[in-house]
């Protein structure tokens, strides 16, 4: 089956005030399936918002095409595109009630008042705002405004909903709650979501697939697990979650395991598969991949942060080199200044060949 | 501890300040009820005569309404008021439409010479009235236009548009561009967005600009003096003519009525502003 959204070779340049050019989209290809939750993730200026605005029609592409369900959207103005957006600032209309905000798409489309009222009530119910229709947006809390923006964007039943960092204004607890609700809502509605964020935790929590972007180009597309466990390059590895990168040279092979060393002499164990001594590569280990053991990398704890479920440690290797981030479950008796050995399972190491 | 004398000084200063601003107004209001027809600084008794006289209802009138002694008549004054209102209504409407449209265009579209355009719009506000008045007069005469109601309206529009523009622009600057995008995103054409989102959001600014334009148009003497035709005297020009023959008690009555009208308009404006949208 053809994907719902097909973006091909999308390109968009912006002129800078100095007369130069910034490439916001540098030949982006992206497919999004019906009922898929896709997150565009990247640092600010990576082109994720431009890509979203190109889909909604607020940015026109210099070249490339955008198709939705087989229909070409590339040249259509925003109001002719069957996609809806939840804006970062919510962009609620302050001069009309919540109900009229939510029913705006239907009102504009010429749906009769009676029909509109029924659908508005249903949609408010869906986002947990039943009975709030007569209020003004200014009388609502931040979380409630967020829900109104959501209700307003889904009432016309778009096949694709675009969300531009919609949770960034909410406090942490509310944000986590909304993440789960959004995911549930997406399942219930059965429509595709494209969600823009710079918060990698948010991306990991909610997405079916994550699109990691940098400098107008896609660095990697994959499931959260893929992206986290098998980043394609340093950028993705460092952007998603805390990472320990070791630039190592393979020293020798011992059965299934290859022993590699950093320039300073920190020892990392890798799966052997066809490695040769003298090979240079980057080994990636996540903080949770380490355990405290009798043997392993010797080091001293320089910083210990208690986070409730985990204890986060910075460990300075005895051999030298950058501190290693470690997350352990049971850190009883471990504190700043503790000397310990860090062990890891070679199978947990992800290897980048491009080092 | 704060210095108590500081408070005393500040309070005294404030009182003096407001006295200085408002005393002349209260003096005029007081005089307008003084029945002494010759020297209004000497209180003779309370009277409504000057008000009733304005409308030709009193025999005791000294100026307006007393056809035998003075040229000014009630009919002339009412005609001047009518001219002023006509001019103000037309100029307010025209300059509000143009000023609002310009503010929207300058805020939402990027084009060559945008900065210069902005500067040119400020110019009529900075320009001394007398220069503007003479300039307009020469302009109309060069074009061979007869001075009339039309020339007053055109003249007023040239500078009132700037006032409306400034006020609507301020409102526009505070508006989230995402509002219009949200409207378009939900299927509204540009026209629908203008009608259903942009204009309602700008309404307080537009109303404020229109009220200001109305008040300035009603009030303008210098420019109007140059560009009004013989038969098209506005109220300020009419009052100015009366004063040249001495300050008559009726002028105090007219002034008091104008103060009253201004207060009502200002209160209306403040009320509109306080109705917070968003």
Automatic annotation (TrEMBL), chain A:
Kindly list the GO molecular function terms attached to this UniProt entry.
ATP binding
Name the keywords, alphabetized. ATP-binding, Nucleotide-binding, Transport
Please name the Pfam families in this protein's record: ABC_tran, TOBE_2
Q: Which InterPro entries match?
A: AAA+_ATPase (IPR003593), ABC_SmlMolc_Importer (IPR050093), ABC_transporter-like_ATP-bd (IPR003439), ABC_transporter-like_CS (IPR017871), Mo/tungstate-bd_C_term_dom (IPR008995), P-loop_NTPase (IPR027417), Transp-assoc_OB_typ2 (IPR013611)
List residues of the ABC transporter domain.
Answer: 7-240
Q: What SMART domains does the record tag this protein with?
A: AAA (SM00382)
Q: Which residues form a coiled coil?
A: none
User: Which PANTHER family does the annotation name?
Assistant: SPERMIDINE/PUTRESCINE IMPORT ATP-BINDING PROTEIN POTA, SPERMIDINE_PUTRESCINE IMPORT ATP-BINDING PROTEIN POTA
Annotated protein name in UniProt: ABC transporter ATP-binding protein
From TrEMBL, chain B:
Specify the taxonomic lineage.
Bacteria, Pseudomonadati, Pseudomonadota, Alphaproteobacteria, Rhodobacterales
Q: Where in the cell is it found?
A: Cell membrane
Q: How does it sit in the membrane?
A: Multi-pass membrane protein
Chief site of localization: membrane
Membrane-crossing residue ranges in chain numbering? 7-33, 85-107, 119-141, 147-168, 197-216, 222-241, 253-272
Q: Does the keyword Membrane apply?
A: yes
Tell me what organism the protein belongs to. Pseudotabrizicola sediminis
Recorded hits in InterPro entries, A to Z, give:
Bact_Polyamine_Transport, MetI-like, MetI-like_sf
- What family is this? Belongs to the binding-protein-dependent transport system permease family. CysTW subfamily.
Q: What is this protein called?
A: ABC transporter permease
Q: Which residues form a coiled coil?
A: none
ABC transmembrane type-1 domain span: 81-269
Alphabetical UniProt keywords: Cell membrane, Membrane, Transmembrane, Transmembrane helix, Transport
Q: Which Pfam families match?
A: BPD_transp_1
**Entry keyword Manganese:** no
């Amino acid at each position: 089956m053809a994907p719902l959204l097909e973006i091909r070779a999308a390109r968009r340049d912006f002129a800078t005030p100095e007369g130069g050019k910034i490439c916001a989209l540098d030949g982006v290809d992206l497919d999004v399936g019906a009922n898929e939750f896709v997150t565009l993730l990247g640092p600010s200026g990576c082109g994720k918002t431009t890509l979203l605005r190109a889909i909604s029609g607020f940015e026109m592409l210099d070249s490339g095409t955008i198709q939705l369900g087989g229909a070409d959207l590339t040249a259509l103005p925003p109001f002719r595109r069957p996609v809806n957006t939840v804006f970062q600032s919510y962009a609620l209309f302050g001069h009309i009630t919540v109900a009229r905000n939510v029913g705006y798409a239907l009102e504009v489309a010429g749906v009769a008042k009676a029909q509109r009222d029924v659908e508005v009530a249903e949609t408010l119910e869906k986002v947990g705002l039943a009975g709030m229709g007569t209020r003004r947006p200014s009388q609502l809390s931040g979380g409630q405004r967020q829900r109104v923006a959501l209700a307003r964007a889904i009432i016309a039943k778009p096949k694709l909903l675009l969300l531009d960092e919609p949770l960034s204004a909410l406090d942490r607890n509310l944000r986590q709650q909304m993440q789960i609700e959004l995911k549930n809502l997406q399942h219930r509605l059965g429509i595709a979501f494209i969600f823009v964020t710079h918060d990698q935790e948010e991306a990991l929590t909610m997405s079916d697939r994550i699109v990691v972007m940098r400098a107008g180009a896609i660095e990697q597309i994959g499931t959260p697990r893929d992206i986290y466990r098998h980043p394609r390059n340093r950028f993705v590895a460092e952007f998603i979650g805390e990472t320990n990168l070791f630039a190592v040279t393979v020293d020798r092979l011992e059965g299934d395991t290859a022993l590699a060393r950093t320039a300073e002499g920190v020892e990392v164990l890798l799966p052997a598969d066809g490695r040769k001594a003298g090979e240079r590569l980057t080994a990636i280990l996540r903080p949770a991949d380490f355990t405290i053991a009798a043997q392993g990398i010797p080091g001293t704890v320089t910083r210990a942060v208690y986070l409730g479920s985990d204890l986060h440690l910075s460990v300075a290797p005895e051999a030298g080199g950058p501190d290693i981030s470690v997350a352990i479950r049971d850190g009883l008796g471990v504190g700043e200044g503790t000397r310990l050995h860090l062990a890891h399972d070679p199978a947990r190491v992800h290897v980048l060949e491009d080092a | 501890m704060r210095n108590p004398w500081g408070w005393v000084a500040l309070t005294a200063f404030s009182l003096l300040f407001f006295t200085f601003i408002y005393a002349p107004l209260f003096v005029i209001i007081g005089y307008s009820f003084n029945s002494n027809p010759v020297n209004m600084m000497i209180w003779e008794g309370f009277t409504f005569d000057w008000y009733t006289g304005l409308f030709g209802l009193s025999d005791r009138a000294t100026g307006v309404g007393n056809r035998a002694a003075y040229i000014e008549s009630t009919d002339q004054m009412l005609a001047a008021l009518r001219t002023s209102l006509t001019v103000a209504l037309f100029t307010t409407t025209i300059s509000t439409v143009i000023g609002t449209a310009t503010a929207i265009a300058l805020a939402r579209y990027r084009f060559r010479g945008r900065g210069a355009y902005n500067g040119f719009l400020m110019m009529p506000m900075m320009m001394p009235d007398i220069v503007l008045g003479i300039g307009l007069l020469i302009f109309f005469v060069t074009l061979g236009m007869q001075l009339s109601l039309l020339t007053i309206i055109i003249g007023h529009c040239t500078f009132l548009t700037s006032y409306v523009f400034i006020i609507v622009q301020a409102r526009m600057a505070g508006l989230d561009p995402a509002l219009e995008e949200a409207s378009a995103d939900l299927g509204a054409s540009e026209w629908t967005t203008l009608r259903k989102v942009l204009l309602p959001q700008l309404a307080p600014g537009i109303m404020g600009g229109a009220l200001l334009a109305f008040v300035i148009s009603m009030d303008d003497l210098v420019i109007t003096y140059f560009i009004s035709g013989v038969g098209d005297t506005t109220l300020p020009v009419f009052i100015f003519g009366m004063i040249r023959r001495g300050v008559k008690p009726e002028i105090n009555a007219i002034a008091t009525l104008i103060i009253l009208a201004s207060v009502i308009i200002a209160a209306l404006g403040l009320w509109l502003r306080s109705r917070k949208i968003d």
